[in-house]
Design goal:
Elements: H1 3-8, H2 16-24, H3 41-44, E1 51-53, E2 56-58, H4 71-74, E3 77-79, E4 82-84, E5 95-101, E6 117-122, E7 130-138, E8 143-154, E9 158-170, E10 176-191, E11 194-209, E12 213-216, E13 237-254, E14 257-281, E15 287-294, E16 297-314, E17 317-334, E18 338-345, E19 364-381, E20 385-402, E21 405-411, E22 414-425, E23 428-439, E24 458-470, E25 475-491, E26 497-516, E27 520-534, H5 536-540, E28 553-561, E29 569-578, E30 581-582, E31 590-591, E32 594-607, E33 610-619, E34 627-629, E35 635-637, E36 642-650
Parallel strand pairs: 3-6, 12-14
Antiparallel strand pairs: 1-2, 1-5, 3-4, 5-6, 7-8, 7-36, 8-9, 9-10, 10-11, 11-13, 13-14, 14-15, 14-16, 15-18, 16-17, 17-19, 19-20, 20-21, 20-22, 22-23, 23-24, 24-25, 25-26, 26-27, 27-28, 28-29, 29-32, 30-31, 32-33, 33-36, 34-35
């Protein structure tokens, strides 16, 4: 096991929940980002709830699904703990890791969120010059290259990182696309008390073909298809630009005061956007092919947070008081789509229709302005306990300008949170949290009659409690209960995506992480959930009691094994099981349970004295066939078996 692997492993213990949350907000001088050759999601995982490092991800939850909801859609994204209204996510040009913060790992946030938190860490340039290069390919024909540079300009005071990447994608459904991106981070620390981190990243997408969404005519799943056979047409292809720019700052005027600030601009500028629907799909594969073309549109947000923290110490007790201001302004235009009926789909027959001249209609514009002020208190009592409470007042206003009118909504709720952790002994720690929040509910999906329509903000609540147990010196078990309640959105009988009741997700979640000597790392987890929809439409029978797209059981096991006599070689295995899920609003159709297996290996070697890693992965090794949902009664295939490889070198 290399030094970088050891450094990534979390050392569990009874006070993990308390100590880890304090470390989140204890600012030390920035450390250099981990090298590309050392990126390993298994060894980097703190728990089984979700981590992304570089190109690799694992965990029960993702940035689009935590306890059955999307924290990204809800607006619960942070950059190094500070509020970020994400339109487009950070990529690895500027992002080091992304972690899902729920349960004990969310307790270090003085203002948590009901749907969990996606927390990005920046790739902070260090004080040593370096160059990292990565080249990748796969069996479908994708090919990409990345290069990241660090330039220290003034000892430990000023350094710059720059990164470039380009990739030709070949997708699971036979479509293809081209992307290029560039970005960088500057670290400027004129004094030990002040650190400023400007960053920026931009991505260009071209000729990204739009694959089909399958919409059956009745209560059945789509027939099996050849996933890599794309029948076209090729002209519905995405073109667009996305970018994120921002600056983080930390200032310690005295040992008792810390001031942190972040200002961010996030945007997605779509020059060409399409939907590709196979409607009225029959068991024999015949259907009506409909292309939905959208006029150019843009979604952009300016957001930020200013937080001042005052600490007081007495004996072995630390008191923290946080004063907080958050704000965002988001604008978006959508609608005006043109619908191109390409007639009947004949399975196996390639469509060669020419690109038409589109006739776009007027668009809808919406704007959201939100300001939030908060006060929070935390008590950290040595290695015994942690208590936290927060109160926020938010002013939310949304204006929608339709082609034939205007609506304006406003909400000014009080939001609050409570958190506690208590160490029973050196190996057992209990935790509990309660949070109320105001969150976004996203946009209507492609298959909806009101496609892309912005949905209203909603008030949500979450409660959870559990225990952290140190199982010896190198293993930690987390076990918790949770309940999350929100309004329920799905397609109604007319195909309109709207609120149909309330949904409550109650469940148990487990995480087991640790190491067996220097040979084996384990990350395993499970979610046992009882999702339930309630309301008048459920009682009338038009809406089923199970929410669309939510499994009741999920299990995941990840292993990274280094044979004792082959120190430069490692094998990794990942197994994910997902139980059956309701696929339609009325629960008449289900997606069956499935198990996916990934098998991979790493070989560490030298190129001219520089560390290098060869990484190979066989994803979906058993070539399991299945569908993912794209809304009630709308489906896309899951990727089939794929062999991929990359070589990374750090100079």
């Amino acid at each position: 096991m290399g030094a970088a692997d050891i450094a990534c492993r979390r050392e569990p213990g009874a006070l993990t929940a308390i100590a880890a949350s304090w470390l989140l907000f204890s600012w030390a001088p920035a450390a250099a980002v981990q090298q590309r050759t050392d990126e390993n999601a298994v060894t980097a995982a703190e728990d089984a709830f979700g981590v992304t490092i570089g190109r690799e991800s694992l965990g029960l939850y993702t940035s689009s699904s935590v306890r059955g909801f999307s924290p990204t859609v809800a607006g619960n994204v942070r950059i190094d703990g500070l509020y970020f209204d994400q339109v487009w996510g950070l990529n690895s040009r500027v992002r080091s890791t992304s972690r899902i913060r729920v349960g004990p790992s969310a307790q270090g946030f003085p203002f948590p969120a009901p749907t969990g938190i996606v927390d990005y860490s920046l790739r902070i340039p260090g004080s040593e010059r370096s160059v990292g290069v990565l080249v990748d390919t796969d069996a479908w024909g994708s090919l990409g290259a990345e290069a990241d540079f660090v330039f220290p300009l003034s000892a430990d005071r000023l350094s710059v990182s720059l990164g470039l990447a380009a990739r030709e994608y070949e997708y699971y459904n036979g479509t293809s696309g081209s992307y290029a991106n560039a970005g960088g981070v500057v670290r400027f620390a004129p004094t030990d008390a002040l650190e400023i981190l400007p960053f920026g990243v931009i991505s260009e997408g071209r000729d990204d073909e739009t694959g089909p969404i399958y919409v059956p005519a009745g209560y059945f799943l789509p027939p099996r298809v050849n996933r890599r056979d794309f029948e076209g047409p090729h002209w519905p292809a995405y073109e667009g630009t996305a970018y994120n720019f921002g600056v983080l700052a930390r200032y310690n005027p005295t040992p008792q005061w810390t001031v942190r600030a972040g200002v961010f601009e996030s945007a997605l500028d779509d020059d060409a956007l399409f939907g590709h629907l196979l409607l009225d799909l029959q068991p024999d594969g015949s259907a009506q092919r409909l292309i939905v073309a959208d006029p150019p549109s843009k979604s952009a947000s300016t957001s930020g947070e200013l937080r001042a923290t005052r600490s007081f110490s007495e004996a072995n007790r630390l008191h923290l008081v946080h004063l907080n201001l958050r704000a965002r302004s988001r604008t978006r235009n959508y609608g005006g789509s043109d619908f191109i009926d390409l007639g009947p789909r004949v399975p196996g027959e390639t469509v060669k229709s020419p690109r038409p001249e589109f006739e776009f209609g007027p668009q809808t514009y919406d704007r959201v302005d939100q300001q939030t002020a908060g006060l929070a208190y935390e008590l950290r009592w040595g290695q015994k306990a942690q208590i936290g409470a927060g109160l926020q007042r938010t002013d939310y206003e949304k204006q929608v300008d339709f082609p034939d009118g205007q609506t304006r909504t406003r909400d000014e709720p009080w939001l609050y949170n409570l958190a506690a952790a208590w160490a029973l002994n050196p190996t057992v720690t209990f935790y509990a949290n309660y949070t109320r929040g105001l969150e976004e509910s996203g946009v209507a999906p492609d298959a909806a009659a009101n496609r892309n329509e912005a949905l209203p903000a909603i008030q949500t609540r979450q409660a959870d409690a559990g225990v952290s147990i140190a199982l010896g010196p190198a293993f930690e078990l987390l076990a918790g209960l949770f309940e999350v309640a929100k309004p329920y959105f799905s397609l109604d009988e007319q195909g309109v995506f709207r609120e149909l009741g309330e949904v409550t997700h109650r469940g148990l979640e487990f995480s087991l992480t640790g190491s067996v000597g220097e040979q084996l790392d384990l990350v395993a987890g499970a979610v046992l959930m009882d999702p339930e929809v309630s309301g008048p439409e459920v009682r009338s029978g038009t809406v089923g009691s199970r929410p669309v797209g939510q499994p009741e059981r999920t299990f995941e096991v990840n292993l990274d094994w280094r044979p004792p006599r082959l120190r430069d070689f490692s094998l990794d295995f990942g197994v994910t099981y997902t139980s059956d899920i309701a696929a339609t609003r009325d629960n008449a159709v289900e997606l069956p349970a499935r198990t996916l297996l990934d098998v991979g290996a790493r070989y560490r070697f030298k190129i001219g004295g520089a560390p290098a890693t060869l990484r190979v992965l066989l994803a979906n090794a058993t070539d399991e066939f299945g569908y993912d949902l794209r809304g009630s009664g709308a489906y896309d295939t899951i990727p089939g078996r794929l062999f991929s490889a990359y070589v990374a070198v750090d100079w």
